[in-house]
Protein 1
Amino acid sequence: MLRFSMLLFAIVGLSLFLTGCVYLSVDQFMPYHAEALQADWSDLDSNSQGLILGLLRGLGSGAAMAGFAVLYMVGTSLVKNPRPYLVLLPSIAIGYSALLCFATYTVYVKTPGNPPLLLGIALIAVSSAASIGLVLSQRDRDAV
């Protein structure tokens, strides 16, 4: 159960890390951002472009670091006792995924854009399943 839970956490961590890397490396907004603003990147003045790139890179840096933290805790938990991360690992995985989903939902509801809302929901679901598995694996371990 522990290994399966860690596999799920690793999927979440890798997804967050790669999402962060994408957002850190972009030089303009995504197609759904254009839909949300109803404008092309070239339609924006340089100040607006700079602000949007800063916001995207802020989101990207948070996602990359949350993903890195999750991956680090997964790796350490597989080598050593996962007990030090019983609260922190689920908190970061579910917490950042939920905040990312909330931000995506805000764009979905308040603009005509079509952001990847299902990705956020999937990250929350996988993080929750991994967290339940982690708790159950420790409960089974403590019962022995």
Protein 2
Amino acid sequence: MLSRYETAGMKLVLSFVTLLIILLPSVTLADSSAQSFGVAPTEVSIDNLPPGEAAEFQLTIRNQDEVARVFVLTIFQPPEEDRREGRAGIPDDSWISFSSQEIPLAAKSEASMNVTVAIPPGQEWAGKDWEIWLGVAAESSELLTVKCYVRLLVSTRAAAEAKPNLGLVAGIAAAAVFLGYGAYYYLRRKTKSG
């Protein structure tokens, strides 16, 4: 007869084996789908984007699988510890838009889609460095799905410093010279006639 500890140990081993039998096929399927598609580029950097303007770039998705798939695009705010140093999470996901949220691809094919980054106008958005990730995954009903992430780095142009208007400065200088010469000429004439 088995002791109480041996019975508990056997139950633990059986539970572990059952868990492996359930999860191993899912992990194998997820691992094989990891090799079945790709996204390029894996990192996009947009620098010096003025607030109030937009930038656009293309993502290419490759379906390397033997069957047609529908790929879904999402936006993901990475945790602070996963972002590049000095970068904050983008304040509003709606600043990023896709030409299509879903893209169907035949087997062994690829397609490109447009991604737009539009920063609203406002000096509060000037001189900022943000990071957000774009997720691409094949539509699936499986427990585990593989998602590829594209790192998107966005930096906005620093606020413009107020520069003196050279035309205005030249106009004021010319007016001062003209008025000074007029006053000199007037006083000289007045002195001669008096």
Protein 3
Amino acid sequence: MFQKAVDPATLCDHCPSETREWYSGSSSDRDKEDHLRKGIILAISGLALLAGCGNQGDKASQVPLVPKWKGAPYRLAFDTKAAKPNPAGVTIPGIKYTANPDALEKRASLVVQFDVSGATKAGPMMNKMIMFPVDISGAEGALPADYMAAADKDLSRFLGAYCIKGKVKISVALANSSLSSQAGDAEVDAKRLSDWLPIEVVFKNPHPKC
């Protein structure tokens, strides 16, 4: 009345060869599917990792580079040594310069602005003088002594002509050598190679006429 339970594995011993091949084939297919699924997951993970690295690279490339040199191509400083007495009646201290190595000039002109508020002579007046070009070389140096002596004489002529005495506020700057000797403020600003460097000097007119 009762049938004995039969182990399916023992049944396969009596199965036709086609049936045995079907059982073994289904197991192999499942293994292939598992390997394929794992391969797809690994590939997606790898692509996500590469995408993350690419974004970091893009962010790094978007970071602005900080320039090594900021501001005007030349920086000026007055010599700290005591100025020698000058027969011209006024002495502009020696001027040293430091330049941007990537924006060096071979020649430049010194521009001197001076305060004419202390003038006692009426009439039209200029408030700046533009020196002739002078050779400059290297990333640092100083304007030649004879060039500065010429600047002292020219400044003395202006101050003496306007009857200015005593302390005078001046500012100096370097400009491109192409600057005209009669250039206006706009042209001076457009061709300046340095910022203005202010100082106060004393003028004693060697030939007083006022």
Protein 4
Amino acid sequence: MVFFFLSCEETGGITGSENVSEISNVSFSNIVTSITENNLVANGIIKNDSQTLTISPPWYIECQFYYNDNSGDTYLIGGESIKINNSLSPNVSLEWTLEHQTNNPENYNNFTINDLRAYKH
């Protein structure tokens, strides 16, 4: 298994946009969330599950950040994406990190991510 570490890079796209092509045959695993001084952070691994197809650059990983209040309502905090400038060969994995900047990350101690996907423009 090969791992690459990537950080956030502005993509200029709209997070959650329907005007993209989702990449099939990928799986996400080992997803961990944490809070830093100014960011909500999600880390994980994406694997190209295809036996034959390589994902060619550029491609993107994105997700939405959410929190639940005390009444059980869910609120969208925002979304983030990263641009991947490497090919991902069949059966190869890649480590990724998405960071959402916020002034008061301690207000979102129990944040979650959802709508995680890989896509191409």
